[in-house]
Write a structure and sequence with these properties.
This protein is of the alpha/beta class. A seven-stranded mixed β-sheet has the order 2-1-3-4-5-6-7. Helix 4 packs across helix 5. Bound molecules: inosinic acid.
């Protein structure tokens, strides 16, 4: 079984990706802590590719990278690729976003997730993206999840991400959709490539 290094230092993310890619014949591993990758790309996909490529090349192993964030229409797509760097903590990030959006009637926003897989030489072999459309609430609602979940409302389910059960969020979220898309491509990956 081939190794696939997940370009993250976060065990939680490794566990989540392991669930998404269940059934594939790959041995998922966490990247070494001292191998840092700076997110210098100008898009989610550029950052996902960068993470996968740098880690793959440094270790001479297959690697997978992802990047995600929230884009708010009335804020011209902010915080976007800066979602995790927008403020120091989740509650401060939410506070700032609600403050900047103010009383705007246009509450539309979307979560985006990009995922990329690199061969051991660093070249990118697979790319997938998932988008989940929703609306930004006027105040936080719900206790589940993380990040911007309490202010991201999905009209179809009449719940914020933080009010949803984890398995529903997993199915309809940007990350869930990106990995469903990636899984299909993984299955088609030429046997000789692996
Ligand atoms: P990264 O993809 O680990 O770089 O993180 C991107 C940032 O976007 C996170 O720190 C969160 O602030 C935000 N984010 C990404 N996905 C979600 C989500 O599913 N719920 C809430 N916030 C998210």
């Amino acid at each position: 079984m081939k190794n696939l290094v997940v370009a993250t230092g976060n065990q939680g993310k490794l566990d989540e990706i392991r669930e998404y890619l269940e059934g594939l014949n790959w041995n998922l591993q966490l990247k070494p802590k001292d191998l840092e990758v700076e997110e210098t790309g100008d898009s989610f996909m550029a950052n996902a590719c960068l993470k996968a490529s740098v880690v793959a090349q440094a270790l001479g192993e297959w690697a997978i990278g992802d990047d995600s964030g929230l884009m708010v229409d009335a804020l011209d797509g902010s915080p976007g690729i800066y979602s995790s760097r927008y403020e120091a903590t989740d509650s401060k990030r939410i506070e700032r976003l609600l403050r900047e959006l103010g009383n705007s009637e246009n509450r539309r926003g979307k979560f985006v997730c990009a995922v990329a897989v690199a061969r051991p030489d660093g070249s990118i072999v697979l790319e997938a993206e998932g988008v989940c459309q929703g609306e930004i609430t006027r105040s936080p609602r719900g206790k589940n999840g993380f990040g911007y979940d309490p202010i991201f409302y999905v009209p179809q389910y009449q719940q914020t991400f933080a009010e949803m059960k984890a398995d529903l969020k997993r199915k309809i979220s940007h990350r869930g959709l990106a990995f469903t898309n990636l899984l299909a491509q993984f299955r088609n990956l030429d046997e000789s490539e692996k």
